[in-house]
Amino acid sequence: MVEGATINPVPAYIFPGQGAQAVGMADWVLSASPSAKRLFDRGREVLGFDVERICREGPEGELNSTRVSQPAIFLHSMALLEVLSERHAPGTSLGQGLPASGTAGLSLGEYSALVFAGCLGFEEALEIVGARGRFMQEACDLEPGGMVSILGLEPAKVQQAVDRARALGPIGIANLNAPGQIVISGTKAALDEASKAAKELGCRRAIPLRVAGAYHSPLMASATAKLSPLVAKARIRPPRVPFYANVTGGEVREPEEIRQLLVRQVESPVLWEAIFRALAGRGVARAVETGPGRVLAGLARSIDCGLPVVSAEEEEISRKVHA
């Protein structure tokens, strides 16, 4: 929390993105609520494949594909919101009755945050997320690329390394996750050169990530082009709670600006550290990670701005056990 900020005891709700998935995810949430089960059933109907089965049984390679993992994580987050609503705001659904000091989501998680904020309806968001996963997978297949995590180097020097590699192919900064933790994205040749340059500039490590392609980079241009018409016709309402966007790192209130940023987000860097510091600057006492895993809690420890993150799923399981 930022020194001098007024403490706000109402939590923020934050939603993870691709990479949070694991075989066995959603087992507890599906058993905890019939409403959660109905969301996964609707996912099967809309998407044309059994998301629940893949979440429960795998195989891991299928769950990790962009086409599957994106809607799977979205549905898990929505199902968890149903559990939270039933237990803490009876008579409401998808978190609409839960008080919140703000909301944000990492990349894909932005769609979950928008449903929570009341900006997008569940069905419309599900259709867009399903299409987004397909389009991004197609972009990966069309133009192979990857991502590398650069540790221990300031943003300006990472940008310098990226600039040195541009002659070898499209490349850019994809995620500013936390101090000294920046992800770059692009073609393999450009990533190899940028990694070499980053090491020369003093980075601690350059770690290739196990991903299908170059997310949040120019190599996603075909996905942006295909996604744009769907986002253009979506009904987007003003957020009921402060919503923080990946592209700007700050609060966004106007529906048309949210629409434009959703399209830009596919190729733009995710400014997660800026979002997290903005929430801390509002005096938020804690953030609730609403989805599978604890990726965002780990990033919060690295950002170290006094804003702890708790797992909604772990809290609910513990509460049930000790009830």
Task: Please summarize what this structure is.
The protein has 323 residues and is an alpha/beta fold. It contains 14 helices and eight strands.
Structural features, described:
By secondary structure, the chain is an alpha/beta fold. It folds into two domains: 17-140 and 221-322, Malonyl-Coenzyme A Acyl Carrier Protein, domain 2, CATH 3.40.366.10; 144-208, Malonyl-CoA ACP transacylase, ACP-binding (Alpha-Beta Plaits, 2-Layer Sandwich), CATH 3.30.70.250. Helix content is 50%, strand content 12%. It has helices at 27-32, 34-47, 51-57, 60-64, 66-88, 109-116, 122-142, 155-165, 188-200, 221-233, 255-265, 272-281, 295-303, 312-322, and strands spanning 12-15, 102-105, 146-151, 171-178, 181-186, 205-208, 287-289, 309-311. The strands form two sheets. The protein has a four-stranded parallel sheet with strand order 2-1-7-8, with helices on both faces. The protein has a four-stranded antiparallel sheet with strand order 4-5-3-6. A hairpin with a 2-residue loop joins strand 4 and strand 5 (181-186). Helix 5 (66-88) packs parallel to helix 6 and helix 10 runs antiparallel to helix 11 (255-265). The longest helix has 23 residues, at 66-88. The radius of gyration is 19 Å and the shape is globular. The chain starts with 11 loop residues before the first strand and ends with a helix. The mean pLDDT is 95.
